[in-house]
Each structure stands twice: as C-alpha cells, then as structure tokens.
Amino acid sequence: MNTPVLVLVCVANLLASPLDLPLGGSDFKLLKTPAGPVSQSLSQGGAARSDLGTNPAVDSVPSTQIAIGWMESYSKFEGSGQEALWQTPMGRWSFLGHARYEGFDGLEGRSELDRPTGEYSAYTWALEAGSSIRLPWKGWQVGFMLGGGMEAISNTSAFAGWGSTGVRFSPSTQPWAVGLTASNLGVAGSDRTWVDLPAVVQGGGSWVFKVDRWSLIPMADFRMVADEDLVFPVGFEARWEGARIRTGFPIGRPEAAPSFGAGWWSDTWGIDLGLGWHTALGLAPSGRLSLHL
Predict the structure, then answer these.
(1) Which of 69, 74, 35 lies closest to 55, judged by CA?
(2) pTM higher than 0.90 for the full model?
(3) What would the 3-class secondary structure string for the chain be?
(4) How would you write the pLDDT of the chain (293 residues) with one tens digit per residue?
(5) How far is CA 111 from the centre of its chain?
C-alpha cells in the first residue's frame, strides 16, 4: 500500500471512530449546522470543497482572507445569526479562525402538560481556531479546529468545548476530489452535569466537468449527526468566470426542500448568497462578504 493511500485509510478510521462512542444531542444546535451560505445552498453538503464552514482542511491561500456573514433562521422562528472567518498563510500552513453567534427571541414556552408558560429567548456563541497544512503528497490537505462556546436558554446556561478535524484529497491532475470530516467531538455542561455534543461525521466527493467556459460540479455526501437520521446531501455548482450558481437537496431529511445560492468572486473580494428551504419551517436566507488582503 503506497503512502498516500495508507494516510487516507488511517484518517478515515480516525474520523469514523466517534461512531462507536455514546454520542449525545445537547442543546448546542448551532454546531450541527455548517455555517455560511455556500454550505446552506448545497443543503449542508460539500465535504470535498475547500470551505471552512464545512471542512477545516482548506486549501492554502496566497494572502490573508477575512469574511463576515449573516443568516436568518427559518421564517417560523424569530432568530438570526452572524459569523466571521479568518485565514492567513504561512508556508504550507494556513491558520484559521471562525466565530459564530445565533439568537432567538419570542420562543413559546410549554409546561409538561403542554400549557403555555410565556415567551423566552435563547442564544449560542462559538469560537474556533486551528490550522490546515498541505502535506508533501500533492493534493492532500489536513486540518483541525479547537473550539469553545456558551449557550443560554431563558435563565439557564451551559458551556462547551470540542475539536474538529478533516482531510481532503484534490489532485491537480484529476477532475475529482474527496473529503472527510469529524466535527463537534467534545462535551457541554453546567452544574457539574456533562453531556456529549451532537457530533457529526461527514464525507463526500465532487467531480468537475468542463463545458465550453463553464465548470459544472456535481457533489454527493453522506452526513451522520449523533441524534439524527442518516442524510445524503447532493449538490450542484456551476461556475463561469467569477459567477457561481448553486443548488442542493438533502436526501433522507423529512419535509426537506431544495436549497439555492449564488455568488461572485474576483481576485480581491467575493460575495455569496444562500437560501435554505423547509416545507414546514419556511425559508432561511444568508449571505457572506469575503475580502482578500
């Protein structure tokens, strides 16, 4: 077995190992949803992409990149979120940062007898930092992130700590790429009570088809969340010069609907827009502005 294949096998075993653990489903729901309009427009797929919102094994960049973004909750809820991302190069390494916040107002409380108890608010914030490195074998990228955060629901709060890791193989001589991630490996708790976070294991692949000046990129993933059923997000992206058009659908998710997105990228800046859709919960728009310094 050659060295690159051996590395992929070892990493796959490492990322899959959390599936043998008693994984939890704490209230840190923010960690279950990859941040950003790109992931949202692909229905949370795209593990083979170089996108910090989905896989920390991002490609090296020629200069520092920063981004800010926002996301509205599904229209049935009164909530919104913000994010900030940062990536700076240093040789074969990239140093990464990711901050997220999500808040809800006007949530309706219910008693054990399903009687209204009034409205309450909730919010969650998360901070992550890590690195991505380009391995000596061409096309290989490995990344990791360490994070911490807090969630407050009404008058109660909890703290959490976790780690995430990922690997991508995208050979420059081939039209395909594959990626694998394990996220939210940690615990949350308060008052000396600790629970496992909702860990996520996801993998997928993509293929680039060239048609005239267009690049057509279908993607397919599997996504395993600790307290949810297995989902298979499929996505599609079309590129023409700086323009991007995206769509996706999560096969296996009840009451799901297609998601959509678009973007424009230049050498110095980029903008991405996304629109999530759920037949029962409504629509959820999002956006992100990126700058290359």
Answers:
(1) 35
(2) no
(3) CCHHHHHHHHHHHHHHHHHHCCCCCCCCHHHHCCCCHHHHHCCCCCCCCCCCCCCCCCCCCCCCEEEEEEEECCCCCCEEEEEEEEEEEECCEEEEEEEEEEEEEEEEEECCCCCEEEEEEEEEEEEEEEEEEECCCCCEEEEEEEEEEEEEECCEEEEEEEEEEEEEECCCCCCEEEEEEEEEEEEEEECCEEEECCCEEEEEEEECEEECCEEEEEEEEEEEECCCCCEEEEEEEEEECCEEEEEEEEECCCCECCEEEEEEECCCEEEEEEEEEECCCEEEEEEEEEEEC
(4) 444 444 444 444 444 444 443 344 446 777 887 668 999 999 999 999 998 888 999 998 889 999 999 998 887 777 889 999 999 999 899 999 999 999 887 666 555 655 565 666 788 999 999 999 999 888 999 999 999 999 887 778 889 999 999 999 999 889 999 999 999 999 988 776 788 888 999 999 999 999 999 999 999 999 998 878 899 999 999 999 999 999 999 999 988 899 999 999 999 999 999 999 989 889 999 999 999 98
(5) 34
